[in-house]
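Q: Given only this backbone (253 positions), what sequence would you predict?
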């Protein structure tokens, strides 16, 4: 199968690309660093030429509602339009568990994306996953202020990005199925504990990671577990601790 991975250089995207290639698919990755801009549409028609299935795992690092809605609306509209013109038969999108229960900020962008995909002309699959284990590193980077990292309190059930990528390639192979069962990890964690453990293992041992009770309904919902999967969701195998140990074992000694 010919697969285009939008955001194929990203945290989950690079696993989607490598797993799909390992299974013998021809894969192209779409990202700005590879000459394709999903927001402006630059390079998209050429990149989708001959593609059967699009897997969309593109993202931008923002918590702002407008920036997220603008990004996911433009990127999804362009991908669906260029996909239709190129004869794409299946559009697979990755969304986030509980996006509708915390429907503001970044999650409003994910809902806009889901709405466009599910009402579009290309047969589709949407998988919602929880935060990745790798989210701890993304948050550390984005919340650091000198020696401090101010991390909003949030309850999460994180999953390995590689397990999510495997589920996305499975979905691409099995054809359009609409909304499929959510996927979460094996254990509930507190984000601030994950970031603290990540910082002390991989980054600055002296970094002071402080939990912040962020104001507003979005963070209240996230603290109270709005992003935890409901019964019936798929459960990944690798815990956050196991993922950290596996990553640490690959560090140069
Ligand atoms: N992170 C999580 O914990 C998590 C959990 C559940 C679901 N998700 C979902 O998973 C998806 C991927 O998230 P991620 O954390 O893996 O993202 P990421 O690491 O931030 O990677 C984003 C990817 O999108 C590409 N990209 C950004 N802007 C682009 C543009 N204008 N045109 C083309 N490509 C663009 C980036 O490449 P360039 O910068 O080179 O363009 C990169 O390949 C998102 O839909 C997100 O909502 C994430």
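A: Predicted residues:
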């Amino acid at each position: 199968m010919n697969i285009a991975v939008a955001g194929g250089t990203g945290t989950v995207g690079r696993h989607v690309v490598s797993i799909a290639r390992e299974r013998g698919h021809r894969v192209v990755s779409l990202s700005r660093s590879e000459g394709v801009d999903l927001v402006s549409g630059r390079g998209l028609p050429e990149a989708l030429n001959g593609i059967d299935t699009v897997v969309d795992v593109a993202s931008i690092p923002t918590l702002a509602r407008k920036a997220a809605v603008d990004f996911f609306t433009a990127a999804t509209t362009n991908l669906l339009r260029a996909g239709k013109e190129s004869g794409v038969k299946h559009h697979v999108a990755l969304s986030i568990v509980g996006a509708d229960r915390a429907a503001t900020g970044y999650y409003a962008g994910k809902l806009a994306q889901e709405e466009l995909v599910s009402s579009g002309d290309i047969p589709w699959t949407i998988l919602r996953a929880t935060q990745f284990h790798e989210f701890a590193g993304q948050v550390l980077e984005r919340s650091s202020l000198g020696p401090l990292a101010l991390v909003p309190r949030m309850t999460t059930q994180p999953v390995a990005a590689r397990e999510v990528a495997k589920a996305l390639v499975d979905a691409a192979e099995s054809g359009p199925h609409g909304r499929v069962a959510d996927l979460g990890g094996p254990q509930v964690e507190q984000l601030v504990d994950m970031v603290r453990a990540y910082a002390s293992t991989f980054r600055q041992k002296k970094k002071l990671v402080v939990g912040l009770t962020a104001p507003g309904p979005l963070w209240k919902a996230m603290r109270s577990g709005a992003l935890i999967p409901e019964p019936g969701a798929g459960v990944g195998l690798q815990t956050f601790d196991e993922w950290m140990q596996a990553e640490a074992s690959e560090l140069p000694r």
